[in-house]
Amino acid sequence: MRARTGPGTALRTSLAAALGAALLLAGCASDPEGPEDRGTAGGKGKTTLTVGVFGAFGLKEAGLYDEYMAANPGVVIKQTSIERNENYYPQLLTHLGAGSGLADIQAVEVNNIAEITATQADKLVDLGTAPGVDRSAFLPWKWAQGTARDGRTVGLGTDVGPQGICYRKDLFAAAGLPTDRAAVGALWAGDWKRYLEVGRQYRAKAGAGKPFVDSASGVMAAVTGSSARRFYDADGKVVYKSNPAVRSAFDLAAAFATGGLSAKLQQFTPGWDQGFANGGFATVSCPAWMLGYIQDKAGPAGRDKWDVAQAPRPSNWGGSFLVVPKAGRHSAEAAKLAAWLTAPAQQARLFEKRGSFPSAQAAYALPAVSGAKHAYFGGAPIGEIFAKAAQGVPVQTVGPKDLVIAQNLADVGMLQVDQKGRTPEQGWQAAVKAIDNALDQ
What we know:
Layout: H1 10-15, E1 47-54, H2 64-71, E2 75-82, H3 85-98, E3 105-109, H4 110-119, H5 140-145, E4 156-168, H6 169-174, H7 181-188, H8 192-206, H9 216-224, H10 244-258, H11 270-278, E5 283-287, H12 290-298, E6 306-310, E7 316-323, H13 331-341, H14 344-354, E8 357-358, H15 367-370, H16 382-392, H17 402-420, H18 424-438
Parallel strand pairs: 1-2, 1-3
Antiparallel strand pairs: 3-7, 4-5, 4-6, 4-7, 4-8
Helix pairs in contact: 9-10, 9-17, 10-17, 17-18
């Protein structure tokens, strides 16, 4: 649940940006009077474990640190946070390279995990063998994302971003479309091309100037998020140009723009935010964390006007991980804490308190998830909807520059089609040029 710089940071950045830019090098508090690295004032004689995160990550806010300390009175947990991941992550890489200045546990955003597993795994603890970690409890594709090529799992998933389609019931009704979420999901079930066809039906009834989707880029992100292979192949080679799944996703999304179905907005901008409030579009590709965002931006007037249905195909947008640097002073204790924080029971509580959807599939049967409903969205059974989506997401090949490729496809290529009237081919070529320059190809 989280900035346009990466799907995992959107809600953290937009709804909880009040946290100060603390430094990562605050990661190792010590008590000079103790025989080990012991806590500061108030934690004398206790082991201090530090956790470095970006934004309002949710673990502290959900009370999980307090609960762990109550059950483990010899431990004090202190968290440092840098507000934005684009500032946090470069510092993390610098400190990993230096082997110093690290917290005992560090958060990693999903768009960065491939680079971490490919280039930094030797500096991280193998959490796959840590006490309390149960591989079978996690979604297979999430576990795979945190696993290095040598088979060591260095990142434990905290949350994921399974997607649905959020839609305005009043706008659907005015266009003669069904409003019941099961019937709406059935309109486009199984194929993103059917989503385009429903958009054309909507426009035929609603008329010009009544956009069906918020942006063509949002559609493209959702479609590529449902593909097992996107920008890299299994050998780590960049293949976005030759992968038909990527080009077909680009062309499909472009059809929303050229067909008059897009509101031509750029996500996570003031105009996009306003669109939620004023009915500026009928649907939006909607990961679990976006429900809170919509509620915030649409406000009380949008209550029960918005609902959420299954997406055409299971897709993911967002999520994060916890890693334990070997250079940390308490790596064994930190591994135990990381295992506990990502266990199903704690992930269920994080979802209940903060809306972060669990990456531990074993949490889906727990009442906090299985029985979850969202009153703002007409009592939608969000636990059921997003659990089904999460379990259907394919094991995806991720690469170190996924974010660079995705951002240029969206903000250079698709935005030109959506906002500037360029042809899909022109937009594609502009994106390819920008990506190749960024990757020095």
